[in-house]
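ok trying this again, last paste got cut off
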Amino acid sequence: MKTISTPDLAALSAQAAARPRQRINLNLHAVLEDPIQRLVNALEPGTYIRPHRHGPGVWEAFILLRGRAAVLTFDEDGRVAERVELAADGVVVAELAEGTRHTIVSLAPDTAVFEIKPGP
C-alpha cells in the first residue's frame, strides 16, 4: 500500500522550496506508461507552469491537500476563461475536461495538490 502522510507533505514542500523551479512532484504511478497517472505536486508561490492542454481523451483533476492554489483555464486566444481558487475552506477539487488549456498557480507556501489524469 502506498501512503502519503502529513510529514511526507511537509518534506515534499521543503524540497520544492529548495529547488530553483519552486516545485516538485511525487509520482504514485510506477511508470509513465501507466494508464492512470497519480501524483502529488508540491508548488511554492513563484513557480511557473506554462499554460498547456493535454491530448485527446485526457481530462485532469486537482485535489487540494494543503495550502491554496488557483486553477486557470484559457480560451483559444489565450485569455483567462475561468479562475477557480482551491482552498481548505472552499473548493478543494477541480476537474478539467479534455482539451482544456490550463495552468495551476500556487497562492500560498507549502501548497500541495493531488493530480489524477489518464496517461501516458
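PB: full thing came through this time. Residues 6-18 form the longest helix (13 residues).
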